[in-house]
Amino acid sequence: MQMIKWSAIAVAVAAATSSVAMANQADSKGFVEDSSLNLFTRALYMNRDFRNGAGNIGVDTDNSVDSDGDGNATNDTDRYKKGYREETGVGVRVLFESGFTQGTVGVGFDAHSLSSIKLDSGTGRTGNGLFSNNADGQPEDTQSEIGGAIKFRISDTVLKHGNMMVDTPVFSTDDSRILPEVATGSLLTSDEISGLTLTAGRFTALSSQTATGRDTKTQKSQTLRSANIAGANYSFTDNFSGAVFVSDVEDFYTKRYLNLNYGQDLGNDQAFGIDFNFYRTVDDGKKYAGKVDNKIWSIAPSYTIGAHKFTVGYQQSSGDTGHTYGVDGGGAIYVANSVQYSDFNYEDERSYQARYDLNMATFGIPGLSFMTRYVTGKDITVRDDDGVTTTDSAKEHEWDFETKYVLQEGAAKDLSFRLRSAVYRANTGVDDDVNDVRLIVEYPLSIL
After folding, report:
1. What's the chain's average pLDDT?
2. In angstroms, rounded to a whole number, what is the distance separating the alpha carbons of residues 349 and 8?
3. Is 264 domain-assigned?
4. Which of 148, 352, 362, 410 has the fewest CB within 10 Å, making it most exposed?
């Protein structure tokens, strides 16, 4: 699940990677002249309170782990609240994007440095996905990663090879914690035809949000071998766009994706929009993800009037399994009811959403916004370890609240503060009840 779900997903589909393909090669001013250097800092406090006591990595039920570091494992079980995770950290990203050399074929280079610092965590409270753990189960104090990619541009077509963050509906690196996932591979983006963006890529490795190396996941069911993707996004009119994507994740599954997005300005500070998404996923090769046979689709109409935006959503999953993703990136799920905690993508699940957004700029407080939504899912099929159906009427629901403020001027312009809260409840066998709270502070700084 991603930190931000877009209101107009078609826009995100077109932005498959960075802005390298936004300008024609004929307009290139040079490798140095068109370069940019940006610093992005994110501080994240996150806690998850599992109401039934599940989900705590550090609970010491057999007194075998010295959770408090006193040299004695006895009585460490009760040091922390059972099922409670609480962690705080800071991530710093340095992102360099060169321009392209002049000439018919432009050549450039992008590089990044990713670093995280643990401010608070420990055995008994870790497990939110902010930090990697050492052999003793303690979260690492610091971690860092560097990477880069070479790029070539002819006319309005860019080929990029190396390490990169990717954003497509069938392969998308997750950015919901301190640091993002990073993919290794090649990505071709072409804007030669007005209104049409063509995308093709092959990726052979993926680092997690808590690891500094590639292919760090040890289980076969979690390790990317290769993923081939292709897609197109086309703007039929200024108001109507569509996208199709396909992918083949070796020995896991194949996917097909369709998006249709429509938006209309109604005048008098009013607007209407509707977004449709569809996935078809089938297992492939050695089936490391197990049996996969799923169709999932969602539709989300919205109405905006002044500062207020109202959205409803319907999502339906069908087939012999639920919708599967993750080895192709933790962000590779573009459906309406993929929200803060749950994706509402279980087998046979039908889910409904009601959402309200408020933009306080209308009331003289630019930069301040609020959002709340409620999503409920039902008719979930739950199976035991042998694949036998135990129920076909399980339920889940989630209520989210979010507020964000972005400084509009001054030395700290664009500094943002964001509070997210989710209350999630479900039947036994679906997931664990949890309260999820996150405080996020972000500061983007353009250096060059």
Report:
1. 88
2. 24
3. no
4. 410
Judge contact between 173 and 330, C-beta under 8 A. yes
- Whether the CB-CB separation of 65 and 75 falls below 8 Å is answered with no
Q: For residue 189, which of 215, 217, 152 has the smallest C-alpha distance?
A: 152
**Phi, psi values for residue 182, rounded to 5°:** -130, 130
| pLDDT tens figures, 321-376 | 999 999 999 999 999 999 999 999 999 999 999 999 999 999 999 999 999 999 99
Weakest mean pLDDT among 48-57, 379-388, 431-440: 48-57
The answer to whether residue 267 is domain-embedded is: no
The answer to the question of residue 403 being in a domain is: no
Nearest to 289 by CA among 320, 253, 331, 343: 253
Looking at this protein, which amino acid is placed at residue 77? T
Can you give the pLDDT at residue 90? 97
How many structural domains comprise the chain?
Answer: 1
Query: Residue 329 forms beta bridges with which residues?
Result: 326
d(Cα 255, Cα 285) in Å, to the nearest integer? 13
- Identity of the residue numbered 218: T
pTM for the full predicted model: 0.88
Cα separation, 437 vs 317, in Å, equals 28
What's the rounded Cα separation, in Å, for the pair 424 and 435? 6
Cβ count within 10 A of residue 393: 11
In a domain, 118, yes or no: yes
Query: Helix %, strand %, coil % for the chain, to 5?
Result: 5, 50, 45
Pairing of strands 350-359, 368-383: antiparallel
* CA pair distance 240, 242, nearest whole angstrom: 7
Domain interval for residue 116: 18-155
Between CA 163 and CA 186 the distance in angstroms is 9
CA proximity to 305, closest of 266, 334, 340, 275: 266
Contacts of 72 (CB under 8 A, 6+ apart): 66
Residue 309 has pLDDT above 50, yes or no: yes
